[in-house]
Amino acid sequence: MFKRFAKSLEKTFKRLLKGFLLAILPQSAKEKPRPGDLRKILVFRLDQRIGNGILLLPLLRAIRASRPAAEIHLLIHHPVADLFRAAAGSLIDRLWPYNQPALMKRPWQYLALFWKLRGERFDVVITSHNPDNFSLSQALAGRFFKPRWLVGFDWKENARFYDLAVVSSSAKPYADAMVDLWRALDPGAAFSAGGLQVPAEVISRVTAKFPSAAGGGILIWLGATGNKVLPGDIFSYLYEQIRKHGDFPVQFAAGPADVKRLSRYPQWIQEKTLVWKEPLVETAAFFSCFQFFVSGDTGPMHLAAALGIPTLTIFVDSNIRQYGYHDGERHFSLLWKNTPEDRRILNRFLEMLLKMAAPGH
């Protein structure tokens, strides 16, 4: 009850603060910068969801392709910072890990971090959030960092917070929409999936601890949140169809938070499911062992796509266009209503993915 009241109070305060700031903020009169003027760049997202942090990878790759000599900084949730440090190579020049719960307990450290970022004197700061929403905390943090140009998504009346407000679209995947934040400065910027490569020694360490991963095959991730949770009959049907195509190794897995949902699934699936409790870098190493990845949850799917693993995302109640990966070659998405047509499409996708997973392909 108290949490609900506190949340309502916070929303009211933010709404009033935003209204006041919009009334006094002048419209930016700065000319749009040329990419060549941008030598020191900060991209940041204060969101604690791991999938949303991984979504920034295509944006970072587009910036690096456009400005190979630029100094790129990233402020991001600390597990994602660890992952990028281990697996993103030289893509990012400096990582700023962001641990919100720890910083909230020590507000002076929070302020010290933001003052350090302000002192970096960035040419451009790109604040990333979903293009069909607005984050007041992101906008205020971006302004506090005091860059020459602040870039963010144009959403409703909030463009005044930025020097360059970028129009995007909800008709494209979020991963591609992130690149729009740089396309506004370099129209030739292109979306590119992948970009992470886990060091071989980390993969060896993980396969030694989890020998079932060493055989590769297909990883089916059972975990999901909210309305993304898939019914057990989908996984039974998937397993049955995979077996029709050959004796491919299949690994079921789920996170600790998903254990309470396993009882919904057939007993044989529960017995085959590995409850995964390792950190994010080791999770990426584990995923890297498999030939393709199946899930109904978008966070793990973002990780699989970033690792370059072929994917199949099955949705039951989500925006498939925004959350899904679907190129008809390595990434496939399906909105499942358990119709004969759904099964036909699923079998077609599986056939293409299993060909890629076949030995010698």
In short:
With 361 residues, the protein is α/β, with parallel strands linked by helices. The protein has helices at residues 2-24, 50-54, 57-66, 78-87, 100-105, 107-119, 136-144, 174-183, 200-209, 232-245, 267-272, 280-288, 298-306, 320-323, 340-357, and strands at residues 40-44, 71-77, 94-98, 124-127, 149-153, 164-166, 218-221, 250-254, 273-275, 292-295, 311-315, 331-335. A 6-stranded parallel sheet has the order 3-2-1-4-5-6, with helices on both faces. Strands 9-8-7-10-11-12 form a 6-stranded parallel sheet, with helices on both faces.
Structural write-up:
This protein is an alpha/beta fold and 361 residues long. It folds into two domains: 29-183, 3-Layer(aba) Sandwich (Rossmann fold), CATH 3.40.50; 201-356, Rossmann fold, CATH 3.40.50.2000. Helices cover 43% and strands 15% of the residues. It is built from 15 helices and twelve strands. It has helices spanning 2-24, 50-54, 57-66, 78-87, 100-105, 107-119, 136-144, 174-183, 200-209, 232-245, 267-272, 280-288, 298-306, 320-323, 340-357, and strands at residues 40-44, 71-77, 94-98, 124-127, 149-153, 164-166, 218-221, 250-254, 273-275, 292-295, 311-315, 331-335. Strands 3-2-1-4-5-6 form a six-stranded parallel sheet, sandwiched between helices. Strands 9-8-7-10-11-12 form a six-stranded parallel sheet, sandwiched between helices. β11 (311-315), α14 and β12 form a beta-alpha-beta unit. α3 runs parallel beside α8 and α9 (200-209) crosses α12 (280-288). The protein is globular, with a radius of gyration of 22 Å.
